[in-house]
Amino acid sequence: MLALRVSHGSTQFLHQEWATAQVFPPPGCIFRALNSCALCDVRVVILGQDPYHDDAQACGLSFSVPKGQRVPSSLQNVYKEARAHLQRQRQRRLTARLTLHACSWRAT
């Protein structure tokens, strides 16, 4: 488990927010991503704000909702763009392989 130093003022602020407002994710899930893998295995950190529309959607992991929860439209858009990006990457790799193969075939 990751141990973080949080200033006393930050802790007070968080407790006050949890007591007086709806805050996502719940307190037990705040550092879920950091507790899910060893820090030395982290290669990329994405900071941002996830738009949660309903209770129980925030699970402490970015771009994710708990199993069984409806995926918000904003997150569906993120998934759609990620799929499109990966498809473009695959197409570029395939084109590069075919070009390389064609060049090597002509050389023989």
Can you describe this structure?
The protein is mainly α and 108 residues long. It folds into two domains: 1-70, no CATH class; 71-108. Helix content is 48%, strand content 0%. The protein is built from three helices and no strands. It has helices at residues 8-20, 32-35, 73-107. The chain is elongated, with a radius of gyration of 21 Å.
Brief rundown of the structure:
With 108 residues, this protein is mainly alpha-helical. Helices cover 48% and strands 0% of the residues.
Itemize the secondary structure elements and their pairings.
Blueprint: H1 8-20, H2 32-35, H3 73-107
Strands, count? 0
Helix content: 40-55%
In quaternary terms, these chains amount to single chain
* Count, helices: 3
String of helices and strands: HHH
Distance between the termini: 58 Å
From the alpha-carbon coordinates, what is the Rg to the nearest angstrom? 21 Å
Globular, elongated, flat, extended or rod-shaped: what is the shape? elongated
Strand content is under 5%
What is the domain tally?
Answer: 2
Low-pLDDT segments, ≥5 res: none
The class by helix and strand makeup works out as: mainly alpha
What characteristics describe this protein?
single chain; 48% helix; elongated; mainly alpha; 108 residues; 2 domains
